[in-house]
Amino acid sequence: MNSEQQYIELYQQAREMIFSHAPEAMNAVRDEAFENFKTLGFPSRKVERYKYTDMQKLFEPDYGVNLSRLQIPVDPYEAFHCDVPNLSTSLYFVVNDMFYHDEKPKGHLPEGVVIGSLRDYPELVSKYYTKQAKTSEDAVTALNTMLAQDGMLVYVPKNVKVDRAIQVINILKAPTLRVKSDARISSSEPEVARPSAKATPQNAQRQVPDLMVNRRVLIVLEESAEIKMLFCDHAADDRNFLATQVIEAYVGENASLDLYCMEETHHKNVRVSNVYIDQQANSRVNHNVITLHNGITRNKLDLTFSGEGAECQCYGCVIADKQQHVDNNTLITHQVPHCTSQELYKYVLDDKAVGAFAGRVLVEHGAQKTISQMTNQNLTATKEARMYTQPMLEIYADDVKCAHGSTVGQLNDAALFYMRQRGISLNEAKLLLQNAFINEVIDHMQLEPLRDRLHYLVEKRFRGELNKCSGCKLCK
Amino acid sequence: MLEVRNLHARIGDKEILKGIDLVINDGETHAIMGPNGSGKSTLSAVLVGNPLYEVTEGEAFFNGKNLLEMKPEDRAHEGLFLSFQYPVEIPGVSMTNFMKAAINEKRKYQGLEPMNAAEFLKLQREKRKIVELDSKLANRSVNEGFSGGEKKRNEIFQMAMLEPKLSILDETDSGLDVDAMRIVAEGVNKLQTPETSCIVITHYDRLLEMIKPQFVHVLYKGRIVKTGGPELAKQIQEHGYDWIKEEIGEE
Fold first, then answer.
1. B243 touches chain A (CB under 8 A)
2. Where is the ABC transporter domain (chain B) (predicted)?
3. Sorting pLDDT into bands at 50, 70 and 90, what band is B24?
4. pLDDT digits (tens, 9 = 90+) for B47-69
């Protein structure tokens, strides 16, 4: 209980340091975020949207936060290559929460397009930052806003189309030097709660502390703008990481956004992601979230139709085993008529993995001619694997077409036997069926190189050849 | 080829096979007939190792190897094939990938390298002709959206690809129109060699007129109660099973 206390104390103690290392536009909303965080506290599991993931517990450990912006020496090009090969020359890195500036030439971006750090564009940041990700409504968003000191800005001006996909590699990397004590979260009762945490000889020699990072992304698409973004999350250290992430996307009239978020980290990694998308009239959004490897993951998507004639497709693909935990929570709000939303989330859970999907579609008064379809299908491979699924429709308009459904099941025994009779071993038959199951959702993904790569990665994953992020040298 | 002795099997608590004896030599074709519920499909399921059935007594040897100790996939690798009465649909697995996996696992079992893509496609093309199967079906998911006739022809296509030593056709003629039945029967005949054998399970004489078994067995209440030549099938077609029941002392 009271996991929030250590963050409140940290903020009170380190407020000056946080402010001095962050841009003004981000500081402007910081105190408000802090007050909101204090009021809200982490939600308990009694709060509907947090029923399946215990936030108190996730934020309880004593993580280090790099508030003094200690430079973490890393050459991402050296340390790392992502399993999704470079889709274009437009490859960017975010190291922890820091937009990585380098001299490597980027592919030509059309005029006016910005892909850079939140630090460098105060006007855009003041205009859009936290307008959707309201700190009064979500404790993690509030915490992220009160601690975030850098982040990534993507801006596409009116009528500009960025043809090549932009790939962003998020790397989690712990500092190799000991973080100053003032940057450490002071736990309320450290000696009792974590006897080994401090002042022991082993710990004094431990050079790489566990780390919390607070990532921030702001995407602004003006009228008729188009961009495809692929975020790949990786951990470059075999440490405990807690990453919070807030993505805010404004999709202007007739604009088009493809957003792919792929996680391929390891079992010590905790990820809490909140994605907010606002869609103006006739815009199009394709949101995809793929969890190939993780520890504990909680992904929240809040998508709002605020202009008529817009449409979104949301696809989710989860493969989890061992003790992994993946919770996808979506809320699609149809505020206006004539919008279409489609959701398909598929999970394959093995060993003692736990999956959760809670999707809610809210059709507000007057949002007539809404079309909405939500599907969640899950395979549990063992008796110990658990899936919690909760598709919800809430409709306040009378001329709509909405459907939702979910299934939890096992591989079809008749199909398995049929394949074995043809000489396909039981393992191979299972693999083919699991692949077939998950491919249905991957086939919907429109970024072709990613789709091909995912087919390959998923197969490798099912074969157990993808035990942790194979891309980074450090965890091999 | 196959030697079955005193085979008993059950599903759940229900005993279905109550002592089957059957010997099949190389190059022979045997028909198994019998009223509904007599155990014909159970016999085929037990021979290929369907885990739903439990063998309680008896033995089965396939080319000298103890069949009942082998995994279903190994029985297939050894050359046993079942044409299913109800072929299973497998959404999301294409016919081509399915066949490739089957062929290459068999090759692995035999210590051979996997077949390369060109060879495989060529083989697939050749074998498809045997049952006049549309090439479009190769890109579709296994049996998904296939018509009844296509499913059965697809079974024989798989048989052609895998070149089994012993094929069991479980009511492959059911649900087929006259033309489709001819295609299936001709396909089966083309695949027969002096080294391969076949068990045809059927209710009707029509398929047997085309496939021409040397032996016809009547299975009733879990036992083979009568064995004869092709003429037995004709008699059953004309008179039904009552006279056989009388012969064995049932009314």
1. no
2. 2-246
3. very high
4. 999 999 999 999 999 999 999 99
Distances (CA, A) of A61 to A152, A171, A212: 27, 21, 10
Are B93 and A433 within 8 A, CB to CB?
yes
In degrees rounded to 5, what are phi and psi of residue B170? -90, 100
Which token pair is A217? 């992304």
pTM of the predicted protein model:
0.84
Chain B contact set for A423 (CB, 8 A): 73, 76-77, 102, 105-106, 109, 162
In chain B, whose CA is at the least distance from the CA of A427? Answer: B73
Alpha-helical segments (H) within A47-138: 55-58, 76-79, 122-128
User: Which domains are present in chain B?
Assistant: 2-247 (3.40.50.300)
Q: DSSP 3-state assignment of B55? A: strand
A 205-234 → B contacts, CB under 8 A: none
Q: Does B110 touch chain A (CB under 8 A)?
A: no
- The tokens describing A331, both together, are 């809320």
A437 chain-B contacts, CB cut-off 8 A:
92
Which of A394, A359, A353 lies closest to A376, judged by CA? A359
DSSP string of A246-309?
A: EEEEEE-TT-EEEEEEEEE--TTEEEEEEEEEEE-TT-EEEEEEEEEE-SEEEEEEEEEE-STT
The answer to the question of residue A182 being in a domain is yes
Spatial neighbors of B117 by CB under 8 A, at least 6 apart, are none
Q: How many CB pairs under 8 A join A and B?
A: 75
Nearest residue, CB atoms, A421 vs list B82, B97, B141: B82
pLDDT in tens, A258-293: 999 998 888 889 999 999 999 999 999 999 999 988
Candidates A424, A430, A463: best to mutate against B (most CBs of B within 10 A) is: A424
Any chain A CB within 8 A of the CB of B91? Answer: yes
- Of B78, B12, B2, which Cα lies nearest the Cα of B42? B12
- What's the structural domain count of chain A? 1
Q: In the numeric block, which tokens belong to residue A334?
A: 């149809």
CB atoms within 10 A of CB A286: 20
Tens digits of residue pLDDT in A381-433: 899 999 999 999 999 999 999 999 999 999 999 999 999 999 999 999 999 99
Distance from CA of B134 to the nearest CA of A (A): 21
Q: What is the span of the domain harbouring residue A179?
A: 4-413
